[in-house]
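Onboarding guide, step 5: your first structure request.
Type a short instruction followed by the sequence, for example:

Predict the 3D structure of this protein.
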Amino acid sequence: MKQNDDELEDVLQPMAWHGVDFTSTSGNQRYGTCPWCGKPKFYANRKTGLWDCKVCGVNGNVSQFLERMFDEVYRPGYTDASRRAFAEHYKLPLEALQDVDLGYGDRGYVFPIRDPKDRIVNLRTKALGKNTLGTKGIGGADLGLWCADDVKATELSVHHFLCEGETDALAVRGKLRRLKKPGAVWSVPGATSFDEAWAERFRGCAVHVLFDNDEGGVRGDGYLHRRLHGVAKELTFLSWSDDEEMQGWDVRDYLTRGKAWSRLVSWFSSEPRSHSDDTDELADLRPEPFDAFVDRLADTTRPPDLITDLVPGQGITLVHSQPRTHKTWVMLEFAVAITSGTDAFGSPKHTVPTAKRVWYLTEEDPPTEIRDRLTALLAGRNDE
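The system replies with structure tokens like these:
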């Protein structure tokens, strides 16, 4: 089994993503190579995630695994050289990256996602110039808030700044440190990706939302307003200038161009740029009478299947089954059949009416693994 096999149980995904090469199964346990000693004596329970290494003599739960990886591998890897490389790539001042809750490893920079009790529940990674990636964390969570500073040090008296993404958060942190202004800076995984449970972290606090100067940021303002209004003691939103030069900017764009912090602060408003988002628009829709619905679709025909009696030509097809039942192979077979216009699984019942281009996305399997599987599938068709 590969360490990034998509058949792996969710509770073990964080371990596989961060260095455990699971190779075999024994009862209710999987075992493989330990990320610390390199010996094939690392065991993990497939249901609880409890683990231990027979050689290292260490054990714990998933959170303790992530803590150990961060403290012993990733945090020491965050050196002056990696700090300078990040600062130069994103045009950030070095002080933005000093004494920051950040690590570095084989996959790039490592951002620890902590719960309100300061326990690490996920470690997300970012290579320079790439989006931040990660696997599912504890409880299946793949998103979370990242605070650039020690979460335990944040107090009600401190102003909290919410930014879209880690680089925006670090740009704001660098400016605050240079101006010697207190503040806790947080990275939100997306303008409309803010879990309702996260709001409790900011109860009674002064919160400032610094989202991007684009349509997504406007929607995000409305989304955060609903989440934090009445929770935060003070809630303001960055209402960007109408200056055409700044259209599409984020706060890192603004600050790295030498623009004044005081001017940015002057744009803070207690009102969001929008009180609604896509969810509100859906809530405003009125029911459509059935007869009107039928009339509206009278001239609409069902598109042909992509694969006859297997993959419809509209909607979403979800492949689901128990672990280790070759779901990845099935999806690749779909892709090869559709792109080549050949029968799926060699069955005349599952023809492909029209060959089409397919976009195959994966955040786990390495390119060599995909190559080998596609080569095998094409060889079965006698297709070079």
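Each response can be followed by summary notes, for example: Confidence is low (pLDDT under 50) at residues 279-285.
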